[in-house]
Each structure stands twice: as structure tokens, then as C-alpha cells.
Amino acid sequence: MTNIITISDKKYMVDVGFGSNGPTVPLLLEENTVHENLDLTQMRLVRSKIEEQTDADQRLWIYQIRHSPNSEWEPTYCFTETEFLPQDYEMMNFWTSQNRRSFFTYSILMAKMIMEDGKLVGSVTMKEGEAKKRVGNGAVETKTCKSEKERLEVFKEWFGIRLTQEEERGIRGTVAELKG
Hints:
Helix content: 10-25%
Number of strands: 11
Largest sheet: 4 strands, antiparallel
Order of helices and strands: EEEEEEEHEEEEHH
Radius of gyration: 19 Å
């Protein structure tokens, strides 16, 4: 979910839920202003159309990242300035949490930002059983979990999440469970 906030007649895009490649600061809604993100990653907004659109005149805001100043810009997601209402979010949340085509119904995805002295210095991510910790200028520590027990240890050690026994039982038998 992308939020657009207005401060002193200027609009900013704020997104706190996209994960480690998401924006780490509010981005002014203006094209091609490059901002620093984690490590050497940069981010920007552009206005353009996307391939799937049928209205060639319609322009969307596209959030892009690149992992170094010499790499290509990658479109990550797009959004409009259309206002959404609570019932819109209820429906989107319902679909995302219930539809079998939504990866949120069969995948474990986690992201945590690492702060030191009030400054963002890294991130910890997990997809399925693959965990990555990035701190500083690209230093990466990885851990591959082969079992649910190993993944629960990473939850505790890297994310500070301790599941209750009931929550652990709730994973067993689901498509997201690591069977190793």
C-alpha cells in the first residue's frame, strides 16, 4: 500500500511495507529525482505508462531502483494518485490474504531494517527458507534453512520473533512449511 501525504502543499509518496528494496524515506512526487537507499542502491519516481495499459495517454507513477550508479533502472511497482477508501483496502486485503494466486497465501516473506544511532544501515530479509542480512556497503550474510526448526531459529536470532507453540503448530501441514 502506497500512501500519498501532503506537507506544505507538496505531495510525497510513503511506503512502509514493500520490503528491503522499498523506499526508506518519503519521496517527493517529482520525476527523476535520485535518492540514496541502502548500500549503493538508488531510487527514483518516473511517470510513464506500463505495457499492460490500454489507455496510451494515462500515466502512472513508477517506483524504480538500481543497485549501483552504473546499473539499469528497474521498475518495481506503480501507483496512481487516486484516493482509496477503507472498503477498497478491505477488499484488496481479503484477496491478498485468501486467493491462492497471491504469493502471500503460500510463501513466507519477511523484511526488517537495521538501525544504528538513528541511521538506516542494513536489512534482514527472508523468502521461504533463504535469509539474507545486508549491512554496510553490500556485505551479505546468508543462511539457508532446510527445516522449519532452522527457520524458527532464524526468526528468533535475526528478526527477534518468537512464535508460541500454538503458532508453530499452525505452520505444520501448510504449503509454507519447510519439510526438510
